[in-house]
């Protein structure tokens, strides 16, 4: 068999590998390794630090492209949805009020194998918290339900004002 025949035989096989699935697999395996080696909380903290930098970079990209001096709550809510759409999520705005932005999601950008990889939710929480707090000085992200936790969907509330009653289980961000 010639080299070309071997290459063609392999290339025509239906092997489910593409750049996106490859990157997802690397991230999911890295998270699992971190959690196994250093534990859940430390893995979550490490991913949170990366997300903080990513959130800053993404905020700056949107700010330059949208070119609004001050973005409205509605604009920020749709920035978050657009960001997740661009990376493979299926988020939508459920509610926007002066106190909170509520987002729902039915498809995780990290793929179907994210169940059980809860520290990856800190990536979403931190990116959202960084973007919102940079624009509005404060955000507290509450992950009420997550796909990674096995809930089948995500229900995320981004609080826009501190409330001492709610802060216990929330991640706070300051701009």
Structure report:
The protein is α+β, with helices and mostly antiparallel strands and 175 residues long. The chain is 49% helix and 17% strand. The protein is built from five helices and five strands. The protein has helices at 3-11, 19-38, 40-66, 73-86, 121-136, and strands spanning 91-96, 100-105, 138-145, 154-159, 171-174. It has a five-stranded antiparallel β-sheet with strand order 1-2-4-3-5, with helices on one face. A hairpin with a 3-residue loop joins strand 1 and strand 2 (100-105). The radius of gyration is 19 Å and the shape is globular.
Which properties best describe this structure?
five-stranded antiparallel sheet; single chain; alpha+beta; 175 residues
N→C terminal distance: 63 Å
What helical percentage do the residues reach?
40-55%
Q: Helix/strand-derived class? A: alpha+beta
Q: Give the overall silhouette.
A: globular
Strand content: 15-25%
Sum this structure up briefly.
Helices cover 49% and strands 17% of the residues. With 175 residues, the protein is of the alpha+beta class. The longest helix is centred in the first third of the chain and has 27 residues, at 40-66.
